[in-house]
TrEMBL record:
Main location: membrane
Domain of life the protein comes from: Bacteria
UniProt protein name: ABC transporter permease
Gene3D superfamilies: MetI-like
Organism from which the protein derives: Nonomuraea glycinis
Family designation: Belongs to the binding-protein-dependent transport system permease family.
Length: 330
């Protein structure tokens, strides 16, 4: 009888020992996993510094209040017919269809696209030519950079006021010179072509220095041995520009083209100050027409749909520009 009772007791002790061993193995595995995770945290600074994301929280909140919430408000307006703050009617995509079929909006889109194309055709070559002509060494480098950058320091509304007075045919120096020295009839307040030329010349004067500074930075990044080799080979100035400087400017010019297109396609302040969109609708670009609908007529529904379509058009054209330029660069 004592042998029978002794055998199960030994088996129970063996099972207890096995369970204790398994528990000890599990604890050892967990300890090894924790040590491995701590080692990964120490080896990867990104995981160790995850708390630093809390420093970005104010920026996220600021962007939410200044960009995301206003955008959602515009989306809300674009699908409603608002009669008063407490009286509104859901209309779905009606305003989008109305705006896309509006002949005045289509005409403003064509004018804006044409203006942006002319800006790029003028400012990019002029900016590159100015950058190539600027000195690379000596005391005149700083002087030239300051003089070139001066138009960029002037606010947009001040630029519009300057050109509004400068191009006046009666009191403006530029308008007086065109009429009396060149013998041409120039009056941007009455002639649509003169108004267009005035706005275009104003934008070229204001923003060509930006292209020049970007191109100049790209030229300064080219190592001197390239130019020394071209000089030894007897390459002309045009050959040096075509085979050395221009290929190195491809990335910088891509940025310049995108920046100038976006800014010229959304231009508002300068033509509004100079011509107010006139005479007639000659310089009424998309931004000016949008402000008339939203502020002048206070049609928040069509204005919301208009602004979203405007935003989408800018994104699509910029994407096409970027894709074409980068693939051409490859």
């Amino acid at each position: 009888m004592s042998e029978r009772t002794a055998a199960p007791a030994g088996q129970a002790d063996g099972r207890t020992d096995d369970q204790a061993d398994r528990r000890a193995d599990r604890r050892a595995e967990r300890r090894a996993e924790r040590q491995a995770e701590e080692g990964e945290r120490r080896a990867d600074p990104r995981r160790r510094n995850n708390r630093a994301w809390l420093l970005v929280l104010p920026v996220v909140v600021s962007v939410a209040f200044t960009a995301v919430i206003p955008l959602m408000t515009v989306v809300n307006f674009s699908v409603q017919d608002i009669f008063s703050p407490g009286d509104r009617l859901f209309v779905g995509l009606e305003w989008f269809r109305s705006v896309s079929r509006d002949p005045e909006v289509r005409a403003a889109f064509v004018r804006t696209l044409l203006f942006s194309a002319q800006v790029l055709l003028l400012e990019i070559p002029l900016g590159v030519l100015l950058a190539v002509s600027m000195p690379r060494r000596g005391v005149w480098v700083s002087v030239t950079l300051v003089l070139v950058a001066l138009p960029l320091l002037i606010p947009w509304n001040v630029v519009g006021t300057i050109w509004q007075i400068f191009a006046r045919p009666d009191i403006g120096l530029g308008g007086w010179a065109v009429n009396n020295v060149l013998g041409l009839e120039f009056n941007y307040t009455l002639d649509a072509t003169d108004a267009w030329i005035t706005v275009l010349a104003m934008d070229v004067w204001h923003w060509t220095p930006l292209v020049a500074l970007l191109a100049y930075a790209g030229l300064r990044s080219i190592p001197d041995p390239y130019f020394q080799a071209a000089q030894i080979d007897g390459a002309s100035a045009w050959a040096t520009f075509r085979h050395i400087q221009l290929p190195r400017l491809r990335g910088v010019l891509t940025i310049a083209i995108l920046l100038r297109f976006m800014d010229s396609f959304m231009i508002y302040t300068e033509p509004f100050v100079v011509t107010g969109g006139g005479p007639g609708n000659a310089t009424s670009f998309l931004s000016i027409l949008l402000s008339k609908i939203a502020v002048g007529q206070f049609d928040l529904g069509p204005a919301g749909a208009f602004s979203l379509l405007y935003f989408l058009a800018v994104q699509i054209v910029c994407y096409v520009f970027f894709t074409v330029l980068t693939r051409t660069g490859r």
